[in-house]
Amino acid sequence: MSKHEEIAQTLTRDILTGQYRVGERLPSERDLAARFDANRGAVREAMKKLEQLGIADIQPGGARVLPLNEASLDVIGHLLAVRDEPSRELVDQILVVINALVQTAVIAALQRQDQDMLDTLREVIRPICSEQLDLESFYDAQTSMFRGVMEASGNLPVQLIAKSLLDQFGPQMAFLRDYAVPDMTTHRALARAMDAALAARDLDAVRQSFSESSKFHRERTQRAFDAYEASHPPARLEASAS
Amino acid sequence: MSKHEEIAQTLTRDILTGQYRVGERLPSERDLAARFDANRGAVREAMKKLEQLGIADIQPGGARVLPLNEASLDVIGHLLAVRDEPSRELVDQILVVINALVQTAVIAALQRQDQDMLDTLREVIRPICSEQLDLESFYDAQTSMFRGVMEASGNLPVQLIAKSLLDQFGPQMAFLRDYAVPDMTTHRALARAMDAALAARDLDAVRQSFSESSKFHRERTQRAFDAYEASHPPARLEASAS
DNA sequence: AGACCAATGTGGTCAGACCAATTTGGTCTG
DNA sequence: CAGACCAAATTGGTCTGACCACATTGGTCT
Fold it and tell me: How far: A34 CA to D13 C1' (Å)?
């Protein structure tokens, strides 16, 4: 890892864990350069990164910590990675958003009235419901489905948001894979419902089936968290939940 | 505007308007420095910006142009600004996404079962339906409503996405304000429906009323586009639509 | 013709300096 | 004593020039 990445990571972690209060001034670039035994250029690059993440506001006179709701979408990945395991609440929120985006994309795709598009859509769903998948392949298939839906929607903003979110979310959730209870029967049933709704071009049914799938996925993820925490040292009891 | 901003803007514009093909190599930093009569540091900063926007991939050996669907959400603002007026299609897509986010946020807020939250929510909606607003104030009120809903949702990813989108979207849409046909009667009716749905905690009604409001807003925006184009030189006829 | 290799060009990093603007701390004034 | 004021120190912003490791390129050798 290069110097500026190291500095940026340390500072990002410090800010996101509350080492610096919101509004507080960060040390000057020269101080940080001395502390990290780095060139000021390296510190500058790191600070630029913080600014891009929207967690610090750099101005002549000093850099200050911004509140989290001023941040860029790109902080999500860092937020998930800051602790030993991601926050259950944040993970659930992300799943909610992804569901909203997928539904928006599917509906947009359906409203384009393009038969080829619809066939493509059903094709990316089929692997989920028809084949005998293990959990690993299921995740891959689901991700492919998401990407396919996004592309079919033709809605660029949705595509960009979903890509950013999935790119940050996926890697951080890898640790849960071994703890998720496979339930391919239900998965397949949910996927069939989605496929049927698509075939019928029934918007309400599409919404309904995707919502149900998302709800199941969210519950399953929370159960995976339970399993993970049960088989791991619950850390120190102090402040482990915040 | 500082040098690196000028360079970044020019390069961003060139890339987004297709002056460079996807996959094509950009000129080297030293070449660009010579072309813009700048030092390499300024060019480097500009290139960093392109990389952050997700429109260029910088690697030892050279920087290459990325396809648009690899970009960051932050390109939206640049995409809207690249042409004389924003693309109608993109604007509509953004409105669709914002509606999806708002609905997600409202539902999340409602499901928190927090009476104070709900009261706050209704308060941010009230100005839209009760007062005699001109169009300008209506926009402000609507934006306030969005922000209030986002905050009330407690869903950080939704907040961050909406903030990013609105920050990029708002300024670029200012040019349309004078061409939007005011229809405060309908606006008020739609807002009252939203308020009633919230008061009843009826999720389906909430979805329905917000969808209708969004639909009306989208149509009104497209009509504003018509009015704008009617009163502006339709540019040269060649390739004006692409 | 293909494999190989050296020269060139590329981005990545660093060091040091200067500038304009802000911040800061003391001083002066009421 | 409080507030306005000013000068010195500090801050981020910019620029110059140089070196490095690696990718690309073009020629050479087999």
Answer: 19
